[in-house]
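Why do we bother with holo predictions? Because pocket geometry can differ from the apo form. Keep that in mind while you read this record for OOB.
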Amino acid sequence: MKPIQQIWPEPFAERYRAAGYWRGETFPAMLRRQSEERPDAVAIVDGARRWTYRDLHRRAEAHAAGFLKLGLAPGERVLVQLGNVAEFFSAVFGLFRARLVPVYSLPAHRLTEVVHLARRSEAAAYIACDDYDAFDYRALGRELKAEVPGLRNVIIAGDPQEHLPLDGCVAEAAGLPADPEPSSVAFLQISGGSTGLPKLIPRTHDDYIYSCRASNEICGVSDRSVYLVALPAAHNFPMSSPGHFGALHAGARVVLAASANPETAFALIERERVTITGLVPPLALLWMKAAERKTHDLSSLDVLLVGGAKFLPEAARRVRPTLGCTLQQVFGMAEGLVNYTRLGDPDEIVINTQGRPISPDDDVRVVDDDGNSVADGTPGHLLARGPYTIRAYHDDPAANDRSFTPDGYYRTGDVVRRLPGGYIEVLGRAGDHINRAGEKISAEEVEDHLLAHPDVFDAALVSIPDPSLGERSCAFVIAQKEGMKPSTLKAWMRQRGIAAFKVPDQIVFVDRFATTAAGKVSRKELRAQLRDDFLTSSRENPA
Ligand code: OOB
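The structure, written out:
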């Protein structure tokens, strides 16, 4: 088993400790502290279930002992694909306590993605819901186990069928090992991924807890806050910006929404007096529209964080008039760096920028194609280094060479402008990925799937601006055979065992791809050209 680690060069680690960012706190210690300080305060609300901090702590300890009793050994990895359910928390805190390492998979992932994550992380077990959002994860667990022989246990919350019940994975907590080291890896987050399948992001207790704690301060989260998890709990945004882990760190209450649609979410905001939540831009648009009907009392909502994709100024301007709360834009990434507009910022900043970094020690550079710093106000590539930004992905030397500079900056892949006061305006992506409502899609990965079809000769995936999704995906395909239909190819893609958001929104068949005089174009140039031609022709011939 490959060791999992995240190492900052010692002078940096020393500075981050000395500055008080890394305080030697771990997730198990954090939950224990809360269960001692506020045992009866409600930590998790999932439908009719309300778990206090004491409940959550006891359940986590029992699971920790149960997982070890199953034969899982400290340091082993466990793929977690749970929806927004209370068990997400008891299982994940149980894994932390047993020194097991959760690997977060999104509920939308299908066989291709979970197999990749399980193999790359060498996962020994898989934890999922029986059924969530009308999908049966027991069947997925069965296929996963068949594909990945090293994965020994499939553990199911709810009706397990032939698998192990999560409820049954409990034992007497006496004799648990000591808490993990604060500098050890707490979990593997997954990258949005601009090339190929998701990469694994090892985040330490020290660095992640710092980002949650600092986010709480920036977003005004205290033990009186109520955080609604509207986005998938496993995603970095609702996890740490300030997210459910931030909320738990503050002793606040976490309310789980099974869906982010306004009907479900508004009812929860009213019932639980939710004070803060986070959304991707298309959902924020939907909420603003739904709020016009004034069906629910949303007066408890203080702060709405919007991020994951660019929130346009016209939409940002409407947050307060429609939802009656303060907007905070958030521009973050699972690799680390997170930027927020601040609560007291003037409207013009909140509406037009994606915020500024969390930490005084976030070392952010904006550079040209040759790596030279550009003047503030000039577009360039964003590089980041700091107390909660990783220095390397897990087990991926090629990605590490591409994604990090020799002096340790993470190449975010984002093109930005830095404005006065260190505020950042995101202009777009340098690479070819599609940011579809906050879900990141790698052009390369989808093209690979399309090329696997026997009748597809070549394919290029590009992003097209879309009024509701921000961006949608459009595949240009050269078919080997006459008469292939977009719907047939889409249906075939859906059967490939990939997350549904990766199936192209639109497929355009073309006879050939234009090439340069030399007969060669890079994939990047080809995608750019197809996109430009498409946008020009749709402007000239609007539908
Ligand atoms: C968040 O994390 P990821 O890892 O899914 O995606 C990161 C990428 C960024 O590199 C950027 O391309 C894009 O998502 N992004 C934004 C944005 N926030 C993220 N692009 C424009 N405007 C924004 N406000 O998406 C994430 C993680 C933590 C907090 C918030 C979002």
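DSSP finds 18 helices and 27 strands in the chain.
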